[in-house]
Design brief:
- It comes from Leiothrix lutea (Red-billed leiothrix).
- It is found in: Cell projection, Cilium, Flagellum.
- Its main location: other.
- The chain is globular.
- Among the domains are: 51 residues; 47 residues, no CATH class.
- It contains 2 helices and 10 strands; from the N terminus they run βββββαββββαβ.
- Helix content is 10%, strand content 32%.
- The strands form 2 sheets. The chain has a 5-stranded antiparallel β-sheet with strand order 1-2-3-4-5, with no helix packed on it. The chain has a 5-stranded antiparallel β-sheet with strand order 9-8-7-6-10, covered by helices on one side.
- It is mostly beta strands.
Length: 157
């Protein structure tokens, strides 16, 4: 069994760095996600007893004092830090410029979702997961979709 301080990479690409005991996360450690961000916690026999999540852009999640994109303030974190863009130039995501979504797909936050195959891949096109019915419906109703640009037919004069 793994014991002491070490690194462990999960099949999803998430990496744990920290203390291990009897093959479990135990003590101080951090889960680092492939798309950025991480969860630093104090672990007890594989369970987090307290911890903080930090997003890839440096924003720390705070359950009690969360002021990011709530019902009162719809700004993205980058808009809070850097201000708004001039009128007429929209900011569609927290990333600016936003990721270019493959045709027919959706940007679901940790990667792209193809509703035809029901597969989520990360931004480097590496498989993450198959979406169940609940996630499928949530993505279709909530997430940003690739622009569908059609050529307008113009009759000859």
């Amino acid at each position: 069994r793994m014991e002491g301080y070490g690194y462990y990479t999960l099949p999803t690409g998430t990496e744990y760095r920290g203390s291990l005991w009897d093959g479990m996360f135990h003590g101080k450690g951090e889960l680092m996600l492939p798309a950025g961000g991480g969860y630093r916690a104090l672990w007890d026999r594989g369970l987090a007893t307290e911890g903080k999540y930090t997003f890839a852009d440096g924003l720390q999640y705070d359950e009690e004092k969360w002021r990011y994109c709530d019902g009162y303030d719809r700004r993205f974190y980058t808009e809070i830090c850097s201000g708004f863009k001039p009128p007429g130039i929209p900011q569609l995501t927290n990333l600016d410029p936003p990721k270019i979504i493959p045709e027919g797909c959706y940007d679901c936050g940790d990667g792209f979702y193809d509703p035809k195959t029901r597969v989520v891949v990360d931004y480097k096109r590496k498989f993450l997961r198959n979406a169940d019915d609940e996630e499928h419906e949530w993505i279709l109703g909530t997430c940003r979709k690739a622009w569908v640009i059609t050529a307008e037919h113009k009759p000859k004069p």
